[in-house]
Amino acid sequence: MLPFDPFRFGRFHNKQSHDYSKKDVENPQPGSFGKLPELWEEDDHDHSAKKPKPANGILFPTTEFDQQQEPVKDFHNLDALFHDTTPPFRSYQMQELADIESQYTELITPNPHPKMTETPEAVGGRKLSTDGVIRLGAERFVQSRSSTMNDVTMPSHPYGASFSGISDREAKDVELIENLLLSAEKVEQRQFERSSKLLDWCDGLSYSLGNPIQRLVHYFSKALREKITRETGRMSVHGSAKKQLSEMEGKMTTPNPTIISIYQKLPFFQAGQFSAVQALVDGLPGATKVHVIDLSIKNGVQITILMQALLSQTNCPIEHLRVTAIGANSKYKQNLELTGERLKSFAESLNLSFSFNVVMVEDMLEFKEDHLELDPEEALGVYSEYGLWGMLAQEGRLESLMKVLKNANPRVMVVSEAAANLNSPNFVDRFTEALFFYGAFFDSLDDCMDREDENRAVTESMYLAHGIWSHVAADGPERVIRHVNINVWRKFFARFGMKEMELSMSSLYQAKLMAEKVCCGSSCTFEMDGNCLILGWKGSPIQCLSAWKFS
């Protein structure tokens, strides 16, 4: 692979310096979830004393790669996006895969037993994980509503429903979860005054820069207060949900320090992306001309991985790669075009023939097969990384998209979506599911990033908080963020004659390998649900990865 030229790539746009205080993060302006400027300069202080970093941002095991690359210290150089986040992609021969299978048989064996939700303390004893705190708090909540123990529907927790055997801090966290759930129940019962009093208590013990439970409760409490405001007919301080989602989409389509930092430090993102790309390559065997339709290209890191994956194949050298990026917001067309320019530069550095096209429609109902300019000589694949959930709240859009893709007849469609069922019409059920799902994210951020990390604060106050707000405070069309689990997707895809494909051992190993190379990767868990790979954090499902073909 050719060495990277740091001057080949452009620079971030509107590069500017910003100073942030705790007040900026804790008390964002009304109408925004921690809406901070997109970019800031790294200062000269060392914030990484607790968690040392290798020179290249992520330490990859390939000695040859380390010798080829120059350290990248400026994360505002676009080199940081492609260089630091994409190690060379390795393909595997049959004997290697046989050895891999013997080492990682747990990856392909469904695990019927749930993961334990406790982690060892540094010095003896046991310590509740974030999931364990939520589970115990939820169990206490259920028991408080039940007249007999026979009514309890949640699995029994090792500590029981009492505070025996846990620290005072953990006991307070459990109480926080219990009272937060009680408040949600009072909202559903339209007992808003009682709910508000419970939230007052929660707010006194939660904190946006505290431990994972305190942070989690802080944002869920804010969302519950917003729901009370809406239910009582008062003026909401937040703008349109669709507008906020559009703004988030714009940020996701431009490389920025927060996105890069999260991608580098949370192991399940890299693990899922490398595994998904391998599944895409596996679905296009023997192809020398490849056309990939990307339904959510964002900043395009996955395409750089795909380029390296295709070039690593020795049995069928790639002649040309064409990528079509689909967008449904013309406001960000320029962002996608800039992504294309960066990808073209990256392809040139690899001496890869590459072309890029943007298909922009204002409404997915307008998307037609003619937009794709299909070539019968090209092997067609579809890649969707969190590209479908946004259409769940838009009547007919997802169905219309799938009809077009079915007519295009791709060899494979790779789908990565959230492994959560956050679309229940029952408010308390949806609230509880969201609490567990986002609890895993807050826990992973706590393990993988410093508590004062600005990128962590932005992730929590902007991206995660907006998701929480959508699940908790919004209803109807305003609830624009919706997630469903793999079983729901299976039923939906079956309507279009799609059949789930088995993920290869190489695809599974890519996930395992990448998790091992990232700090905290040992907490990244893998389980199989049929042919679907479930990536999780300490056993809590985060992402589901599956591959499909049209029959």
UniProtKB/TrEMBL annotation:
Sequence motif VHIID, location on chain: 290-294
Organism ancestry: Eukaryota, Viridiplantae, Streptophyta, Embryophyta, Tracheophyta
This protein's name: Transcription factor GRAS
Organism: Centaurea solstitialis (yellow star-thistle)
Biased composition range(s): Basic and acidic residues: 16-26
Keyword Transcription regulation: yes
Transcription regulation recorded as keyword: yes
Superkingdom to which the source organism belongs: Eukaryota
Assigned protein family: Belongs to the GRAS family.
InterPro entries in the cross-refs: TF_GRAS (IPR005202)
Keywords of the record: Transcription, Transcription regulation
